[in-house]
Amino acid sequence: MKIKIFSRILQLFALYLFFTSVYASLGKIITIQSGSKIFGKVVSSYKETDYSTQTGNKRYGTTHYILRPIIKYQVNGKTYEIHGKILGEVGNQYKIGQSVPLYLSENQPDYAIINSFFELWYEPLRNILFSIGIFLVGTFFGKILSNIKDKIVNLFNPQAHVDQF
Question: Which pTM does this prediction carry?
Answer without folding.
Answer: 0.66
